[in-house]
């Protein structure tokens, strides 16, 4: 009886450990993306994005993606229905209005959080 309980516990432990290490399927991360869309990769480090300005063409699909290279960050783009974080790393939208839109870190990330900004230019 004791051997059976120990064996069942070992199998349960192996199952739990393998589930913890399982990665999300690539389909889940690409669910919002369109392969033909313009790609905008927002790389976030502590208190800055990798570019001061990102440019896209109006009226076309744009897939935004977030990579947290240093620290934990989330992104909001004002006037555009885009909110990215560690649970939602990509989103595809169509922006029909030309203009400039503020990109900000929407997750308090430390002392320089207030200055973590960039711009999206839709031409």
TrEMBL record:
Keywords assigned by UniProt, alphabetized: Signal
Q: Where is the EfeO-type cupredoxin-like domain?
A: 11-109
- Tell me the leader sequence span: 1-21
Please provide an example of a Pfam family that matches this protein in its UniProt record.
Cupredoxin_1
Name of the protein in its database record? Cytochrome C oxidase subunit II
Q: Which organism is it from?
A: Paenibacillus elgii
């Amino acid at each position: 009886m004791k051997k059976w309980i120990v064996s069942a516990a070992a199998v349960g432990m192996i199952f739990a450990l393998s589930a913890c290490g399982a990665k999300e399927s690539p389909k889940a991360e690409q669910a919002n993306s369109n392969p033909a869309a313009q790609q905008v990769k927002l790389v976030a480090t502590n208190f800055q994005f990798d570019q001061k300005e990102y440019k896209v063409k109006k009226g076309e699909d744009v897939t935004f993606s977030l990579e947290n290279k240093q620290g934990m960050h989330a992104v909001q783009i004002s006037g555009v229905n885009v909110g990215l974080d560690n649970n939602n790393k990509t989103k595809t939208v169509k922006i029909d209005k030309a203009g400039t839109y503020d990109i900000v870190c929407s997750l308090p990330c430390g002392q320089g959080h207030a200055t973590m900004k960039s711009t999206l230019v839709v031409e």
